[in-house]
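idk why but the lab printer keeps eating my pages so im just putting this in chat instead. protein + dinuclear copper ion:
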Amino acid sequence: MNVPLYEKIWMWAAAAIIVVFALSVTVGYGISALQPPSHVETIDPGKVFNDPRFAQRGVTTTANGATVVMAAMMFAFNPAEVHVPAGKPVTFRLTSVDVTHGFMIVGTNGNTMVVPGYVSQFTTRFAPGTYLIVCNEYCGTGHHLMSAKLVAEVAP
Ligand code: CUA
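predcted complex ->
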């Protein structure tokens, strides 16, 4: 088959773009530890506060790290401030009681969508310090007011 040079150039360019896309996903997952939301654990958004998984919100600390359970709603995170151990794995479990929100821990790789009906979960570590958590999905007129605070503390 005789393929003109001009067409060959475009075929190779298209193939190169696909390789770049595949590499960017691989690098994001493997090196930067970015993960897509799992979206496998479901929850009734109207009964979040009665659900045993979210009835008690806040931080549970163990010797190996911590778990943060948090609910997102228009226009706040509950609880609005959490203290976690620095340097240890911290697992976040999040859900929304109303609309889709975002959960971004500014300056870290902690960033996920919080979708009603689903539990979003991810694990990351923090250097000691105070971090701002913002909602980065437009969720209504008070979207810009929706924030929380995370303090990563060195164990005494
Ligand atoms: Cu919640 Cu924007």
